[in-house]
Amino acid sequence: MEPVEEVRYLILAAQREGNRRLARGLRPLGVTPAQAEVLRLLADRQPLTMSGLGDLLVCESGSNPSRLVDRLVAAGLVQRVPSSQDRRQVELTLTGEGGVIARDVAVIEAELYREIEAAGASHDLSGVLGFLRSLVEGQSAGDAVARRAGRPMA
Question: Which residues form the HTH marR-type domain (predicted)?
């Protein structure tokens, strides 16, 4: 296997393993990793419009995550409210229960981040970050990460 091919598969394997660990932790809460991402984004940045949310999502492709939001609304975790700025716009906010679940998600994510940090303790994480950023630079998912981190996009 060529080194660049191994890099590709190691990135894929790390993403899948991280998602499995996250899904396992989220299972008792009854939310998926993609739903958890929406809840955490809203906890940090509410209210968000649907397009604003779509600009920040990494787990869900596309800029219109309406089906994902529909499931969260049906579960009573997110609500749609008319925008105070523009009645044609709808803003998304957490319900009380959604806020509780979002806090529980943050605890589960923090544990995953501790595991990642421990695995990277003997490695140059800034070098890994630079490599990964350059790999996704200018791509929609990479742009979403840059927006969330408050970094300028390429």
Answer: 4-137
